[in-house]
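lol ok so funny story. i was supposed to be doing the assay writeup but got distracted and ended up predicting the structure for this chain instead. priorities right. anyway since i did it might as well share w the group, maybe its usefull for someone
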Amino acid sequence: MNQYFPHLLSPIRIGQQVYANRLEVAPMGGVEFTEDGQLWRERVYEGIDSRVSCGAAAFLLGETAVSETGGRGPHTYYGFRDLSPEHLAPYKEVSDYIHSFGCKVLIELCHVGEAKEDPGMPTWGPMEYTKANGIHVHGMTEADIAQCCADFADAAWFMKQAGYDGVLLHAGHGWLFHQFLSSRTNQRTDQYGGSIENRSRFSVEVMRAIREKCGKDFIIEARISG
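and the output, tada:
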């Protein structure tokens, strides 16, 4: 055992869950789909198999946008309000496979906000403006924020039904949570702007919505840029 990290391989309790050690596999690569809507097994399992056998207590799947306004790329699924077996099946297949290695499974939920670069889709952010490349950013209303909170909660509930132990909220890399947290990208004058407490409000409301919907046994992590 490394003298500087004496507890690294010891179990730890996270809420209602017990991790076998203090190691997690960081999110990189998510549950992706082919153009005809089928699970892209070759790509998904290649990303999992290259990392899952390291003995970490938890494995995190990557970037999973909760809505069309928050996603990018053609291989993403956004229908997280549909809890039919057909839609749960590919996500459950992946969580069951990772669980077979004896580790917890979490998935990273995100909304890219004004980082979205698709001119054919709405681009949302804390404030309304037009980017240098001509893409117009829709400044989110309080109704939009409430909808976004519901989108995150619904996606988290979907993942719980598909066997995931928790979710990781992507609050870094300049995406939507980060955009609300930063005074550079959030100069709102309502309850979501100004003080750090107000700029944090959106993040806190999302976490509360997930906790209320998914219960105390569901893990909620956050990835925050320094």
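The chain has six helices and ten strands. Strands lie at 12-14, 17-19, 24-25, 58-65, 104-110, 123-125, 129-130, 136-139, 166-171, 219-224.
back to the writeup now i swear
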